[in-house]
Automatic annotation (TrEMBL), chain A:
Domain ABC transmembrane type-1: 53-239, 309-499
Transmembrane region(s): 58-78, 87-109, 115-135, 174-193, 220-239, 260-285, 305-328, 348-369, 375-392, 436-458, 478-499
Protein's name in the database: Iron(III) transport system permease protein
Keywords, comma-separated and alphabetical: Cell inner membrane, Cell membrane, Membrane, Transmembrane, Transmembrane helix, Transport
InterPro entries: MetI-like, MetI-like_sf, TAT_signal
Topology in the lipid bilayer: Multi-pass membrane protein
PROSITE patterns per record: ABC_TM1, TAT
UniProtKB/TrEMBL annotation, chain B:
Source domain of life: Bacteria
Protein name in the entry: Iron(III) transport system substrate-binding protein
Signal peptide: 1-27
Pfam families noted in UniProt: SBP_bac_6
Keyword RNA-binding listed: no
Record's keyword terms, sorted: Ion transport, Iron, Iron transport, Metal-binding, Signal, Transport
Length: 507, 344
């Protein structure tokens, strides 16, 4: 009986998390209708909204497929082919995760000042976001048992057909999960698009709060964004399918035989080199160039930089722990008790993440000053905002971790007399540890680049690298911004190395 | 291979964790919570200026201060949301509309006469609920290689003419621009302002902020742009990278393009340190505070009687700014107009 009562506990926890993440949305919606439905309709049905919808839609329609194709192709080349220097490529292809997207935009704007608007936005977001697809697909490819593919080959299928029939279907969860992350990030992206002067819903919401003084219009725009997010969630649900990915069998898994690339070796290397150049070399070189300006080096020694670094590390650590802990109950339920309810609980947590930080931030400000005064302007509330914004990042990695930890192992442990807690500690957690680390790292990377929620919610005097960078970069003072960008990248390098190791060791 | 890498990786990982441990105090509640008996200043003014003035105020009076950095609108918004439980004692804005937002909500205490009496005549709002602490002038920045002085418009209103299509830049998304448009609305009325904003939506290049506008003009993307004066003077005082090819055109003649915007300072009615808050405004508008503003190199205008602004600037009187009653600036109506024409 302890099993079902503990399940009830998990359901309660997951429900609580889902409810918490919905709070900012629940606050935004009434604000949107504060001036009546007629005013709302008048506001929403006008050419400007059409333009924003077109811009946002176009960006999603181009960047998501581009990131999926590039990310998956790169993962395939690195994990399943006889690509020369695969280990190096793996590191280089993941490294862009260490470069915040707005730093990448800042670099591209300084390298190619004419590259603004849609083209620049699509380029920079694709280069910045493809690792969200590369990472889960590469991990999945390493974890997949090649036995099925071999069997398909032995039954007479061509190598390509064998891949299409046995590998591709199993990549669906990681492909669609990666695509979803890219789409949600695009919906909430602000820094890149502001720097590229490409108006979307999120930049328009920021503008509304910047000049509007009335959050009705901002909330109306946010409601449209919630609608777009729901659409993305639905599409992903359809695209993912429900295939079982975990492998259960005796003996160790064999390593797949790498596909020979032959004449495709050179084009493949060129593709990967272009990806790495655009996503890594351009930003790092630009930051280096601005650092080399005398002001930049002086900035590195500035005491403000140390304060901002400490602030960033502290908040990123707390945010990562909070978001990952919040994602656990939902991810576990989804894997072990897949039902309409558990899917709904999980999907709900994605909604707030497509909202710009300022919407979540202002919602929590309202909440705190109205009902929870002591929480106002505390680290606790700031961390809660991070958990709400970034729970999906942890959710996606935990989900794939649990998917690779077959429930039969827990059942076996149970049948051998191990209790629920014992099973968790001795069987489930060790199997999940890598994906928990991945989740922690992904959230920490996100928190360290968050701007607006931090600005609104953090205690007076809080300084982070992202805030300082944005302050300088928005004055187009690239030399003064460079030290903050450099430290953001430097801090993210170990985290990215850790992610790389997770992939390497996942079998 | 994996084993040899581990120590390196461990060090790489331990570094941020160690930093996190050191920063425990930093990120902990205690270090950042508003300190008791410390004047809480919410500042949307340029943070360097506020910090300079606050530091000298503390040195002079012994009253400790804590500054929260933000932006006009979101910070004004935030104070309204916080209502009577706001931790803020003093609110400083870059432009006055954010202050009138807080004023309309009835959240401000009247400013002591000692502070207002130190300000030049005609600048303080008739409500006397806030005090001006600095001023900035609207200007037209132009690229000297692309346009000659005699071809410049004599009024900012002329930019609405189709012949200027694609030839001017502005940053309508910012609080600065909104103040300019509110000045135009107060002076020229709704239909003229609406037509001008429509022209902006149709014909102008939109930039993120004043600095981006100036640098775009400098780079030759557009021949002219609307901005505030002080960004240009700061760049000129520095390496001139963003303004070397440009010059400023002052419209004068009480044109809407000569609008002078006021940075404002107010005391929150809910302040638990009202006397100290009033003393801060008295200091900020007084000779020492105004001197600190000028010495900070912000290149904004001093508004206190008897304090000269930076000698590089034309005097405030020479600007021939339109006479606008600052408390009448209607930012809501400006937003509505900007929304109607599709800028927002």
């Amino acid at each position: 009986m302890s099993g079902s009562s503990s399940t009830r506990g998990v359901v309660a926890a997951a429900t609580l998390v889902a409810a918490l993440t919905l709070l900012p949305v629940l606050i935004a919606l009434p604000a949107a209708l504060a001036e009546g439905p007629a005013r709302a309709a008048e506001y929403l049905f006008r050419p400007r909204i059409g333009n924003l919808l077109a811009n946002t839609g176009l960006l999603v329609a181009v960047t998501v497929p581009a990131a999926v194709v590039l990310g998956a192709a790169a993962a395939w080349l690195v994990e399943r082919t006889a690509l020369p220097g695969a280990a190096w490529w793996r590191t280089l292809l993941l490294a862009p995760l260490a470069v915040p997207s707005f730093v990448s935009a800042y670099a591209w704007v300084t390298v190619a000042p004419g590259l603004t608007g849609f083209a620049g936005s699509a380029l920079v977001t694709t280069l910045a976001y493809y690792p969200f697809v590369f990472l889960p697909v590469a991990a999945q490819l390493r974890a997949l048992d090649p036995a099925d593919e071999d069997a398909a080959r032995s039954l007479g299928l061509s190598p390509a057909a064998a891949v299409m029939r046995t590998v591709l279907p199993r990549l669906r969860p990681s492909l669609s999960g990666g695509a979803l992350l890219v789409a949600l990030h695009l919906l909430a992206e602000y820094g890149v698009l502001e720097m590229m002067r490409f108006p979307t819903f999120t930049t328009a919401i920021m503008q509304q709060y910047a000049v509007g003084f009335s959050d009705t219009s901002g909330s109306l725009l946010a409601s449209v964004l919630v609608g777009l997010c729901l659409l993305a969630l639905l599409l992903e649900l359809l695209a993912r399918g429900r295939r079982r990915v975990a492998r259960l069998g005796s003996g160790t898994q064999s390593r797949p035989v790498p596909h020979a690339l032959g004449a495709w070796t050179a084009p493949a290397m060129v593709l990967l080199a272009a990806l790495v150049a655009g996503a890594l070399v351009v930003p790092v070189a630009s930051v280096g160039r601005w650092l080399a300006a005398s002001e930049g080096w002086a900035g590195l020694l500035d005491t403000g930089l140390l304060g901002a670094t400490l602030g960033t590390v502290g908040l990123a650590t707390l945010g990562a722990v909070a978001a990952t802990a919040a994602a656990l109950p939902g991810a576990w339920l989804l894997n072990r008790h897949h039902s309409g309810l558990t899917v709904a609980l999980e999907r709900v947590t994605f909604v707030a993440s497509s909202l710009p930080g300022i919407v979540v931030g202002l919602g929590l400000v309202t909440l705190a000053v109205t009902w929870a005064g002591p929480l106002y302007q505390t680290v606790t509330l700031t961390v809660l905002a991070y958990a709400i914004l970034f729970v999906p990042r942890a959710m996606v990695s935990l989900r794939s971790g649990l998917a690779a930890a077959p429930p039969e192992l827990s059942e076996a442990a149970r049948s051998l007399g191990t209790g629920g807690t014992g099973t968790l500690v001795r069987v489930v957690l060790p199997l999940m540890a890598p994906s928990v680390m991945t989740g922690l790292v992904l959230v920490a990377l996100a928190v360290s680049t968050e701007l607006t929620a931090t600005l609104l919610l953090a205690p007076t005097g809080t300084e982070t690298l992202a805030l300082a960078f944005w302050r300088e970069a928005s004055q187009l003072d690239y030399a003064a911004a460079a030290p903050y960008a450099a430290v953001m990248i430097a801090l993210s390098v170990p985290l990215t190395l850790l992610l790389r190791r997770q992939i390497l060791e996942e079998k | 291979m994996t084993h040899t890498r581990r120590p390196l990786l461990a060090i790489a990982l331990a570094l941020p964790l160690a930093l996190a441990a050191c920063s425990g105090g930093q990120a902990g509640e205690e270090a950042y919570a508003p300190q008791p008996d410390t004047l809480q200043i919410y500042s949307a003014q340029h943070i360097e200026v506020t910090k300079a003035v606050a530091a000298e105020f503390t040195e002079e009076t012994g009253i400790p201060t804590q500054v929260r950095d933000g932006q006009d609108s979101s910070m004004g918004h935030m104070i309204v949301k916080e209502g009577s439980s706001s931790p803020a004692d003093v609110f400083l804005t870059e432009n006055s509309p954010a202050m009138t937002l807080v004023e309309r909500e009835g959240l401000l205490a009247p400013v002591d006469a000692t502070a207002l009496d130190q300000v030049r005549d005609g600048l303080a709002p008739s409500s006397r609920l806030w005090a001006p602490i600095a001023a900035r002038s609207t200007v037209l920045v132009y690229n000297k290689d692309l346009i000659s002085e005699q071809d410049l418009p004599s009024s900012m209103m002329e930019l609405a003419d189709p012949k200027w299509s694609g030839k001017w830049g502005a940053a309508p998304g910012g609080a600065d621009f909104q103040a300019i448009a509110a000045g135009m609305l107060a002076e020229r009325g709704e239909s003229e302002t609406r037509a001008w904003l429509q022209a902006l939506a149709d014909n102008a290049e939109v930039y993120q902020n004043n600095i981006a506008t100036m640098k775009a003009v400098n780079a030759g993307e557009v021949p002219v742009g609307i901005m505030y004066h002080y960004y240009w003077y700061r760049d000129q005082a520095g390496d001139r990278q963003g303004s070397a090819n440009t010059a400023l055109h002052y419209f004068g003649g009480e044109d809407p393009g000569a609008f002078v915007s006021l940075s404002a300072g107010g005391v929150l009615a809910s302040s638990d340190m009202p006397e100290e808050a009033q003393r801060f405004l008295e200091y900020a508008t007084g000779p020492k505070g105004q001197r600190a503003l000028v010495d900070s190199g912000s290149m904004e205008y001093a508004v206190g009687t008897g304090t000269n602004s930076d000698p590089a600037l034309p005097s405030l009187e020479e600007l021939e700014a339109p006479a606008v009653e600052v408390s009448s600036l209607n930012s809501d109506q400006v937003i509505a107009l900007m929304t109607d024409v599709g800028i927002l």
